[in-house]
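agent: user wants the structure for TetR family transcriptional regulator from Nocardia camponoti. delegating to structure tool.
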Amino acid sequence: MPDSPAAGPRKAETIYLTAIDLLADSGYDELTMEAVAQRSGVNKTTLYRWWPSKDALLAAALTAAAPLQISIPDTGSFRGDLTALAGEIARLLTADETAAIAAAVLSASASRPALAAAGHQFFSERLERERVIFDRAIARGEVSADIDPGVVIDLLAGALWARLVLRGLAIDPRYIDAIVDVVACGTRCE
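agent: tool returned. relaying tokens verbatim.
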């Protein structure tokens, strides 16, 4: 969003939640600016003033909506932080509130470059926030200084996504521990 809506952050959050709820309920093709305006109580022309398109609104909503946020863990250990982070990612992929959003965005992104770009921005910004996990682990001597946080996050998130979506299997704490063991083993200092 170029500027905060005149109504303030609370109204923006309402609009974001409305947009992602409609996305989860109806899918990308059925989501309209008119439906967002009607359900959130904002004039459609006002929405277009803040976000020039549905994709622009979804990009902002994906980045800012509270249900899609994850807390950055600080457990005191790299393994503990990875386990907590993997648990947060698993929650996003499986919770009723967010699983449909993830599926709708993935499905729509395949044929909509603007939405795919919003997804890329979402994950890029998330990785920047998660980088502190790696900085702390390097400072504690738990991982090599040349670690690539993006690769580690890709391995964690990719394993969770593959298990759930491609294999149709549940994500349980034992699975999270197993993937964290594999990933953490590959990040240790020599």
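agent: one observation worth passing along. The two ends are 45 Å apart (CA to CA).
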